[in-house]
Write a structure and sequence with these properties.
The chain has 355 residues and is of the alpha/beta class. It has 14 helices and ten strands. α2 links the parallel β2 and β3. The radius of gyration is 20 Å and the shape is globular. 43% of the residues are buried.
Length: 355
């Protein structure tokens, strides 16, 4: 899951003005209050314009019970345990593939989602949902390098730049096995989804070589550290960049020439859902181009609905960080569910972190 929060002073000030709890009933007094119809939505924090939930409640009389999580893996474990029943979740591509393979998702009745027609064709028949049965694309983006223009001699163009000893203790990498191992694999010219033990081992060795110059392996805190100019460069998701640049005008983003990960977050109905008709109504609502544009503008990520994109402010529509040229995207690849082979990555990651 790609969306994370930036805990800058500006954001914290804004957060103090809105309802900000990890588990909450949205709408803050919306018309859905008191309704017998309750839709349980489980999404990453700050990954929806909450005013749209209020709008949905007013239009349908369905109350949205909204809970949040931090990572795909946390969501997966919670849904797998069955301790709480959710009607909608928002997994990333590889997690859609994993959950559908394990029978954890219901097939969506697209007769109830007519606005699915607005989803661009390049986001359909994907590797993670080739028959378009279990998911509807929500937002997408890329993984790249954010750098501080004042702190580097020249703009990075390659993953090689993350191994430049000149920036010793001045680099941030993700505390994430797939992302950081993926960067090393891409630098070596391998697929980010390789299951070849030799290629994975070479990536591990490359990261061991890099580790002495890495300042820290980060999660959410990485964005604030870049904004605060604690590091010269690091790896980040494209959707976080507009907010980061809004906090520090010296930051810039580049997709390395070797290519990178292009990811999609999707909307799915767990097989434990009690209210799939209402879940499909909510999916349909989010696919409406007007609603989609408002949501994408709030979140700051890239939308898979062109009719929604066309309604965004010009500076967002033309932002190459959010919408790279097709020639660049041709070099990118999504993460796939590696099934049991993920253990090879986990083994290398544990060795790297203990090195």
């Amino acid at each position: 899951m790609k969306k994370n929060k930036i805990f800058s002073l500006k954001t914290l000030a804004l957060a103090s003005l809105i309802c900000a709890t990890s588990i909450f009933s949205t709408g803050c007094g919306s018309s859905g209050q008191g309704s017998s119809k309750v839709l349980n939505v489980y999404n990453v924090g700050d990954y929806i314009d909450e005013s749209l939930i209020t709008q949905f409640e007013e239009e349908t009389g369905i109350k949205v019970q909204y809970s949040t999580y931090d990572t795909n893996e946390m969501m997966y474990q919670k849904v797998k345990s069955g301790s709480t029943k959710y009607d909608l979740v928002f997994p990333s591509d590889y997690m859609v593939q994993k959950m559908s393979r394990e029978g954890m998702l219901k097939k969506i009745n697209f007769n109830n989602v007519p606005n699915y027609k607005y989803v661009d064709k390049e986001f359909k028949n994907t590797k993670y949902d080739p028959t378009n049965e279990y998911s509807v694309p929500y937002m997408w983006g890329t993984l790249g390098i954010v750098y501080n223009k004042k702190m580097v001699d020249k703009a990075p163009t390659s993953w090689d730049d993350l191994w430049n000893p000149k920036y010793k203790r001045n680099l941030l990498m993700f505390d994430s096995v797939r992302d950081t191992m993926g960067v090393a694999l891409k630098r070596l010219g391998y697929s980010m989804n390789t299951t070849d033990p030799k290629e994975i081992s070479r990536a591990e060795k490359l990261l061991e070589k890099q580790k002495p110059i890495v300042l820290a392996y980060v999660n959410d805190d990485g964005k604030d550290r870049m904004i605060g100019e604690e590091a010269a460069m690091g790896i980040f998701y494209s959707g976080d960049v507009p907010l980061m640049k809004g906090e520090n005008e010296n930051l810039e983003y580049v997709i390395p020439k070797e290519g990178t990960n292009v990811w999609t977050d999707a909307i799915c109905i767990p097989n434990t859902a009690d209210n799939e008709d209402w879940a499909e109504a909510f999916i349909n609502f989010l696919c409406d181009p007007e609603v989609n544009a408002k949501n994408a503008e709030y979140i700051g990520y890239s939308t898979p609905i062109s009719q929604g994109k066309n309604k965004l402010p010009e500076e967002m529509r033309n932002d190459k960080t959010l919408y790279p040229d097709p020639s660049i995207l041709k070099k990118c690849e999504p993460f796939l569910d590696l099934e049991d082979k993920i253990k090879l990555y986990d083994k290398s990651w544990i060795k790297l972190k203990s090195f």
